[in-house]
Design goal:
By secondary structure, this protein is an alpha+beta fold. The chain contains eleven helices and five strands.
């Protein structure tokens, strides 16, 4: 579930069957006067558009029953609800939800047409805000992917520590000190501080220093974990590794930031 704000109106976006559905119940609050989704469904052009969409995307669409419903559109006595359309014609572009996020939802293709019924201006802004939401989601997916990559490389890193730096017959607490110490080699090389120094400087933040890293920093960290594992396996002293890793971090962050800046200039 996500929220977008369109012309001072908060609109809910839900994922239904891996598709984006937008709340018509929220959207209609932006329309002046007393209007309902059923009023929009009385319009023959509305039903025409829904029918075409269902024929294209819905293999179980009951177009025979739908055509009977559509033939009555325009009559003063004609009324149809979303629930009736779903039950009689097996449409999927509209959904009537109950519970916490209850209301009438429409597939984004249909919701954008509904927005035009509210006003042309409202449609322009809802499309704009929806696109912004999708861009933010893609950024988050990218960040999460980089974070997962860093976690995978962390296992490679700790394996190198286990087989090269940890003597036999020591306690679990002593082992944890070695792991934490090596993690801080990377933290100092990249962020310029240990995990404890970061926590002391940010007492109100949850998580750790790496949870607040940028995508570029996570890419660099992932590379450094692999390089540090190689250096550990080669028996390079920690003090020497710290200097090498810091030099690598400076060089890689410079390159990554230059690439990002070039993209922004295009």
């Amino acid at each position: 579930m996500a929220k977008i704000t369109v012309k001072d109106t908060e609109v809910t976006v839900l994922q239904i069957n891996n598709e984006d559905y937008i709340s018509l119940s929220d959207m209609i609050k932006a329309k002046d006067g007393e209007f309902f989704v059923t009023s929009w469904l009385r319009n023959r052009n509305t039903l025409e558009y829904i029918g075409i969409w269902e024929r294209v995307y819905n293999a179980t669409f009951n177009y025979v029953e739908f055509d009977i419903i559509k033939s009555n559109a325009g009559l003063n006595s004609f009324r149809i609800s979303v629930k009736e359309l779903v039950e009689k014609a097996n449409i999927i572009c509209l959904q009537a939800k109950t519970g916490r996020y209850g209301g009438t939802y429409a597939h984004k293709d249909i919701a954008f047409e509904f927005a035009l019924w509210i006003s042309p201006e409202f449609k322009i802004y809802i499309v704009k805000e929806f696109q912004r939401l999708k861009e933010e989601e893609q950024k988050q997916i990218g960040w999460s992917a980089k974070r997962e990559l860093a976690k995978i490389n962390y296992h490679i890193h700790t394996d190198a520590i286990k087989h090269n730096l940890i003597p036999q017959e020591i306690t679990d607490l002593q082992i944890s000190y070695v792991y934490a110490n090596e993690a801080d080699v990377l933290n100092v090389a990249l962020f310029g501080m240990t995990a404890k120094e970061w926590r002391d400087s940010n007492p109100d933040l949850k998580g750790n220093i790496r949870d607040y890293a940028t995508i570029n920093e996570l890419i660099c960290l992932s590379n450094m974990e692999n390089i540090n594992a190689v250096l550990i396996n080669e028996g390079v002293l920690q003090s020497e590794r710290l200097v090498k890793l810091n030099q690598i971090a400076i060089q890689q962050m410079r390159v990554l930031n230059e690439i990002e800046n070039r993209k922004l200039l295009k």
